[in-house]
Each structure stands twice: as structure tokens, then as C-alpha cells.
Amino acid sequence: MAKNKIALVTGGSRGLGRNMAINLAKKGIDVLLTYHSNKEEADHVVSTIQALGQHAAAFQFDAGNTKSFDQFIAQITDHLKEQTGQSNFDFLINNAGTALYAPFMDTTEEQFDAVYNIHYKGVFFLTQKALPFINDGGRIINISSGLARFAFPGSSAYGSMKGAVEVLTRYLAKELGPRGIAANVVAPGAIETDFGGGHVRDNKDTNAHIASVTALGRAGVPDDIGGVVAFLCTEEARWINGQRIEVSGGMNL
Fold first, then answer.
1. What keywords are annotated for this sequence in UniProt (predicted)?
2. Global pTM?
3. pLDDT by residue (tens digit) across 199-241?
4. Among this protein's residues, is 171 annotated catalytic?
5. Cβ atoms of residues 14 and 47 within 8 Å
6. Which residues contact residue 46 at a Cβ distance below 8 angstroms, ignoring those fewer than 6 apart?
7. Annotated catalytic residue: which of 101, 120, 158, 171?
8. pLDDT in tens, 36-63
9. Which of 177, 196, 204, 233 has the lowest CB atom count within 10 Å?
């Protein structure tokens, strides 16, 4: 009997990451997910995935602290060895992130460094450290943002880091091709979650503005995103590589 494929989803305890993790499980994929501070939410996602008949486990992880990555990789590979007899997995979804809303002129070096460490440096080095344990033929999916394509005032640092991740993804696709590993970007538009303090979900003016500039006439919801990430981990998506897939309902076309 073929072993289940396994995905690692960073920031999988809430919002988009939670939706990705559950949609992966619905495709018959086992899921390791990370959380930053809310173990209770992460455990709830694990229970949901287990109820779907898939294996799941949650691990604490700070995406901005590269010094902790070796220990984190050791933790998940030990867990996998115990569960499956092997320390490898198939899919890495770099989703963990925080928001920063600050005008360019007011963005501090501390804010910039925090966004850089989580959204770019962390993605770069977690992927590098995970690669020896990603099976040949696996997939890497990096989560970007519509804000790398269009500009909303207040997102200069965040949008810039997402732009860097998009370029990095093309390099990953090129360099990892010999191992059959595909790398792609999923770039959500504005989504109603608690991200950034629920900015899109709870601010009526923001929500209405987003709906007005979106071809499909509303802000996005998590269910719009998770299935796309799960699809990219299926055999049907095997020939998609080095691509940026914006999932925004047609924002700012």
C-alpha cells in the first residue's frame, strides 16, 4: 500500500494556513503544521484533520528566528521517523506571516527587520534546511500577496518582501528541477481573516473598497485559497512550475 504524502504548512493554526491544512487533508495528504503561540487553535486544526482520517501534528515555530530552524527541522524529522520510519516529507508550504501597515516614511528599521526575517529570510533558510528532507518529485509553495503586483499605501515593506519571495521561487524552480521538485507562488488578494487585526474582515470601508476594485465583487475568504494550494500538491498540477498564481477574484485588473 502506498504511503500517504506529507505536507508541512507553516502558520497552519489559523486563517489561510488552517484552510490550506484542512484542504490538503481532504486530498488524502497528512499534515504537519506550525503555530507561533496559540497551541489550542493548532490542536483544534489537528483534531479536524484527524477526523478526516489523516495524520496531523502541530509544532511551535517562530518563522522569524532562523537560529531555531535546525532544532525545528530535527523535531519534525524525528516525529516523521517515529510515525513513518522515514524522516522525509513531500510538500513545504511557506505560509507563516504577520502584517505590517505603515507608511513608507514612518516604517522603522525594527519593523523592516521583523518583516524581512519572517517573510523573506525565514522562507529562504527554512526551505534551504528542509530541502534534504523533501522527497524528489515534491513541491514547494510560497505564499505571496497581491501587494507584490499592485501598491496599496502602507504596505511598502511587506509588499517588497513578497516580491523578493516571488523571485526566489523562480530560482528554486530552476535549481531544484533536476530533483523533480516544482516551486510555485500562490498570491492571495485581500482576504477576510484575523490577519493584520482583521483589517479586511472588520473594517467596513476597507471591505467595501476591496469589493469595488475586485472583478468578482467581494473580498476573498479563506475557502477561496486553501483548495488552490492543495491542488498544487496533486498529480494533476505536476507540470505547473515557477509560476505566480494570484487568487484574488480579479483585484485591480
1. NADP, Oxidoreductase
2. 0.97
3. 788 788 889 999 999 999 999 999 999 999 999 999 999 999 9
4. no
5. no
6. 33, 56, 57, 58
7. 158
8. 999 999 999 999 999 999 999 999 999 9
9. 204
